[in-house]
Amino acid sequence: MDPPAAKRSRGCPAGPEERDAGAGAVRGRGRPEALLDLSAKRVAESWAFEQVLSTPHPTLEKTDAQVEERFSRVPEPVQKRIVFWSFPRSEREICMYSSLGCQPPEGEHDARVPFTRGLHLLQSGAVDRVLQVGFHLSGNIREPGGPGEPERLYPVSVSFDRCKITAVSCGCDNRDLFYCAHVVALSLYRIRHARQVELRLPISETLSQMSREQLQKFVQYLISAHHTEVLPTAQRLADEILLLGSEINLVHGAPDPTAGAGIEDANCWHLDEEQIQEQVKQLLSNGGYYGASQQLRSMFCKVREMLRMRDSNGARMLILMTEQFLQDPRLALWRQQGAGMTDKCRQLWDELGALWVCVVLSPHCKPEEQASWLQLLGQWDKLDVCPLEEGNYSFDGPNVRPTVALSPGAEGEEEEEEVAAAGSRHTVFGRALQAGSLRWSDAHLQRILASDSYGPSLTGNVGSDKPIFDPQGHPLWLGEPFPTACARVDTLRAHGYPRQALRLAGAVVNTLRLQRRQQLETYKQQKKELLQKGSTCITNTEGWVGHPLDPIGCLCRALLEACRLEEETLTLYPDSGPEKRKVAYQHVPVPGSPGESYLALALEVALLGLGQQRALPEGLYAQDKVVRNEEQLLALLEEVELDERLVQVLRKQAGLLLEGGPFSGFGEVLFRESVPMHTCARYLFAALLPHDPDLAYRLALRAMRLPVLETAFPAGEAHASPLDSVMSNRFPRWFILGHLETRQCELASAMLTAAKGDPKWLHAVLGSIRQNIHSPALLFKLAQDACKTATPAGAPPDTTLLGIALELGLQVMRMTLNTMTWRRREMVRWLVSCATEIGPEALMNIMQNWYSLFTPVEAATIVAVTGTTHATLLRLQLDTARREELWACARTLALQCAMKDPQNCALPALTLCEKNHAAFEAAYQIVLDAAAGGLGHAHLFTVARYMEHRGLPLRAYKLATLALAQLSIAFNQDSHPAVNDVLWACSLSHSLGRHELSAIVPLIIRSVHCAPMLSDILRRWTLSAPGLGPLGARRAAKPLGTDRAPLCQLLDAAVAAYITTSHSRLTHISPRHYGDFIEFLGKARETFLLAPDGHLQFAQFLETLKQTYKGKKKLMLLVRERFG
């Protein structure tokens, strides 16, 4: 397979061939590079330095006979060029190992990224004393200190081999995931200023040229310069060398840290494994935070970047991350508690599983590498804490095949397959393990990947059991499930094979097109039977949108990537500026398919996947993933600016979706539990509306269906709980039903807004809403949106749309009339305002038909009152006659409500009818009739107070007496709620005169048995009381005596009440209440003394108490002390 084309990575600097300074070549324009340098480059990339030398390397225990035979001694100038070119030449790789790629804190952007800091250090001249000895680079980095701090000096050393940095060391001691800024500065210096770096061969080559005296002098000077550090080690090595049988004398040669890696050593970039493990562990412990999830996703992106660069560290890093993920203590806790993991954590596990599929399916990995990965995955797969894959997706799903039968018995068979699949245990690593059995050696597949012009002219279908070309001669890829085929496409992209990925993606799209044609033909043959039946079995056992392998997303991204316009100037974080740059795409023609482009194919594939009729998967997370995946795909499509070519694709695909039958979510017949098409339809509606309104509306109206609710509720009927969908209780599988209903409402709102001014489509949308939307809360929102759209500021209203808003509001009122909710008052007020916008006829209409819309309380207190406020009348701009007609309608409504619910509506009716004598009298009569029918004393007292306030004291007195007749206050109810009402009634009767007072006293005596209350009333009446003049003015009246009627009867009742209450309290009195009882007797004496012989009566009463309760000696002692 060809290596990937060189392409600048987003957010990375120039590649190896784009920077002459990085190559260190100083040559004129057009001057060819020296043959020595060209050869040295190739050798430096692929050969260990040990292989280059003809003589045995001093670091090896054995010689390589083959190398000795093939090479003579390599001249020193050639060695130097090989060593020179062995350092990495691309800043892109330095960037990859010194930037995570996560979104930095707000306002800092690139400032904290090690690569950017290192670049700034390089540009500020902070790199000094750079020396390259063989495969070892060293230098000093001078970094300015903070305010008041001295300059800091950091010694840095870098080891490298075959254009890869294999080890780093820095004096800053900063432990981080990737290289620090000082290592970056030194590495960039070596790339950009390679000619200025002093170069020496490996130190072993220099030592081999010295005589014995020179070697001794060299060693002694080295020890002298660093005697405190190396003297103990030097003495130990000297002792071992002088010992003939020591181990060091048995080994041929000596190690040289500057000579590069050996033949058998692994050749990979330096990666701090311990730091990666620690970082992942820390981020998982902070899993509840958004930033932690983002950083972990950035690490996954880094793995993909390494895979794309063919860097073996990609798999190494993924292994380290997976091990930490499996050691997350929350896994065991969730399993023990039987609880599901959080959504953020679940998404991270999904990404982890998808990455492993890409790694295992690598088209260029060695068999032993794949075997080791599969062994690890098998071990992880068996762990109890390993998360299971969510949803009921098959692992041996149907192949991408050209024909599909609509068998009536297929539904039962599919259910059996689903049950069988659900019984087996599939972890998130199951698909990666399955990918281990896939191979790239198929001859047809190899030809697809190798050429854009592969067709029937190169080969035929001879000997093949399945077609390998479509009728147009384009290659097909059959024989494995569609998600697996798309996983191959994603793997090719991930490993840096974009052209091959495009070729395979084209073959998969050709197969999908052929399958769709066959499906349409099958449907046409059985269309009549299916339409008569009215329902269908699901034709796709598993959906492609929301699938664990994300097949549609993989295919779309591969196709769109080929059409993406790259910008010239890019930063590490292209989206971190004040405004996110808009992605631009262009049409790239598909080889061998005139008139087609990859951009059009991406749009077609996305619509085919989004419009697929499919069953909703099982499980909350799996269902949520369907929604999330759908939104991600639509976000991709919204980035694409539609031109004329794409609009034609859109129209064609929309038409196919409408004609797709049971294979399309927009087909005429739907499976009961198929995924709704609301979100997809909203995109299509907005995209098609400017170009083909008729098609846009037909598609959107077809998508308004929500089959799972249509089978449960007849059109227009409400849920049992109208504001919150209860289908999740009746159908536990539909965890996201509330979200789906909201999307349905958004689609309807979009259509209503777009249809403004078009009565035909407005009424069509209204009919669809009535038939398909069953949630009153959403219907109310639609009504509000429609009303707002119909009444723009500064423009005349759209009467048709206003009428539809009112119709929806009336439907909500009818649906929620018998299931009261806290939002009813808001809904009623809005309905009145909407009717007001339409005109007086609409307002009077809802008043006249209030029985089917409102409760009596709502009608009397909100509808009638709001409909006749000053603001409403001004808004309607009515003449006197029309205004009076509206008032009459409101009064009629109020009286009807008062008759139906006098307890709550009598007072509002009286208030509303104040200005009309006949209506007011009718309302008053309703109250009197209700009093006989059991209207409570509290409501009668309220109306009575209202009557007094209106200047009708006699009517108030009448109602007060009716209330007293129903009242009963016991001897111990001195805090009864009606106390103040009784005192007010007594004050009213006192002010009216002796006749009214005499009439009310028997009622008081009969209704009130509380002694303190009776005493209070008595004292109030003995004071000088206000009277009423002819016109209701207050006047003074003579105080009444307690020795004459009618107060003498009340006094007797009060005294009797005190006597009765005293005996009642003494029956069960405890010593702690003795003090309260003495105070009670004090109040009783005050009442007794109001009578002419009160003193004698009280003394007799006390004597009776002493004789009766003489056993309570302490209490009687307190009585004697207080009263004698």
Automatic annotation (TrEMBL):
The keyword Nucleotide-binding is annotated on this UniProt entry: no
UniProt KW Zinc-finger keyword: yes
UniProt-listed InterPro entries? Znf_SWIM, ZSWIM4-8_C
Q: Which GO terms describe its molecular function?
A: zinc ion binding
Gene for this protein? ZSWIM4
Q: Which organism is it from?
A: Equus caballus (Horse)
PROSITE patterns attached here? ZF_SWIM
Q: What is this protein called?
A: Zinc finger SWIM-type containing 4
As recorded in UniProt, coiled-coil segments are: none
Q: Which UniProt keywords apply?
A: Metal-binding, Zinc, Zinc-finger
Q: Which residues form the SWIM-type domain?
A: 154-191
Q: Region Disordered: which residues?
A: 1-29
